[in-house]
Specification:
By secondary structure, the protein is mainly α. It has helices at 2-23, 41-66, 75-96, 100-110, 117-130, 134-142, 148-160, 164-176, 183-196, 199-211, 217-237, 246-249, 253-256, 259-271, 275-285, 291-298, 308-320, 325-337, 341-354, 359-362, and strands at 28-32, 35-39. Strands 1-2 form a two-stranded antiparallel sheet. The longest helix is centred in the first third of the chain and has 26 residues, at 41-66.
Length: 363
């Protein structure tokens, strides 16, 4: 209602002022260097408005071309902004090349300008951290207090310093007490819990991660193997794993029955001396297409001599897939468990022949 009244008032003023300005346009005469310029007052006002519009358009173009947040006629300020922009470009280039001292120096200089300040402090903090300048990294992190980027940065630096427990404490409240926490913070929190060996809180967090889709389907398929085998085996060693507990029952049935979870169960059985039961469990759940993910964990399960049936299954798969390097790697592991060092070495050599990337598994 108020806007409508204002619009009516503006229209009424225009209807009254328009004829007055047309009939009484005024007269302006300017003499400069012997030259006479004559115009109406209305024409002069319109010319001034036109010049202001031209200057505004020029300022917009200059901001776009020079990539400046503000265009100032203060030469010193403009020069400082330009230097900061050049330093930011040089800093990003050095960051990409992992030239950490140079990246730290350039990005620190770039922070003198407040354009993209949060991103500049984030990159500058990481560059300073990797360059070993921890005080400067902490100073940049302090500039990001109260932001998700700042929280991620602080937790990530703690993780890289081997302080996973401190990182998990820092992230606990922001992740668990928000209805829709930042996915990056959620992923980092899960990683911190994993590194700290806090398996029960990690298992309790999984339903939230799945509901809010912190990982896409492909990444979560890999993530299962990073969580369940170690969680179940380590909790079982401490007599803390209980399938009737809430942290386990609250998981979706698909998670509890997954190959990753069964590898964890088999690992726990083998650690308690139930090698035959562990082999039987592996035999019923092991899948050929998941071998790239399962192999690093299978090689850590102490089955000893209880690998006969599993070995037959692998040999059966090899008849249909004679060039599968992961099968030869699994065969090498089983030969090693049975004390057949020569057979294990030959099988491993064959595995590397068909799948050279397995070298990192053995390392």
């Amino acid at each position: 209602m108020i806007r409508l009244l204002l619009l009516v008032a503006v229209l009424a003023l225009a209807m009254w002022a328009g004829p007055v300005l047309v009939n009484h346009a005024g007269y302006v005469k300017v003499i400069v260097a012997g030259k006479v310029y004559e115009t109406t007052l209305l024409g002069l006002v319109l010319l001034a408005v036109l010049l202001c519009a031209v200057f505004w358009l020029l300022s917009v173009l200059l901001r776009k071309l020079l990539r400046l947040k503000h265009l100032s006629f203060n030469f010193l300020r403009w020069r400082r902004q330009r230097k900061a922009q050049q330093a930011f470009e040089l800093g990003l280039s050095a960051f990409a090349k992992q030239q950490w001292p140079a990246a730290s120096a350039h990005l620190h200089q770039a922070c003198a300008d407040d354009f993209m300040a949060e991103q500049k402090h984030l990159f500058a903090a990481y560059a300073a951290f990797y360059a070993g300048e921890h005080e400067q990294a902490n100073a940049h992190a302090a500039a990001l207090d109260g932001t998700n980027n700042g929280l991620f940065l602080q937790a990530d630096m703690l993780l890289q310093q081997g302080r996973a427990a401190d990182a998990s404490v820092l992230l606990a409240a922001p992740v668990t007490q928000q209805d829709a926490p930042d996915k990056g913070l959620g992923q980092l929190y899960m990683h911190a819990l994993q590194q700290a060996g806090q398996w029960q809180p990690l298992l309790q967090l999984i339903p939230v991660a799945l509901k809010q889709q912190w990982f896409d389907k492909h990444k979560w398929r890999r993530q299962r193997f990073n969580i369940y085998p170690a969680a179940i085996s380590q909790l079982s060693q401490k007599n803390l794993f209980d399938e009737s507990a809430d942290y386990w029952q609250n998981l979706p049935a698909k998670e509890r029955k997954s190959t990753a979870a069964n590898i964890g169960r088999a690992w726990a059985l083998a650690q308690s001396g139930q090698n035959e039961a562990a082999e039987k469990l592996l035999l019923s759940h092991l899948q050929l297409d998941e071998l790239p993910q399962t192999l690093p964990f299978l090689r850590r399960i102490p089955l000893r001599h209880s690998v006969i049936k599993l070995r037959r299954q692998v040999q059966s798969w090899l008849r249909d897939h004679p060039s599968n390097g992961y099968l030869y790697a699994l065969l090498a592991y089983m030969a090693s468990e049975e004390g057949e060092a020569e057979q294990a070495a030959l099988a491993w050599q064959k595995a590397l022949q068909y799948e050279p990337s397995l070298k990192t598994v053995n390392d």
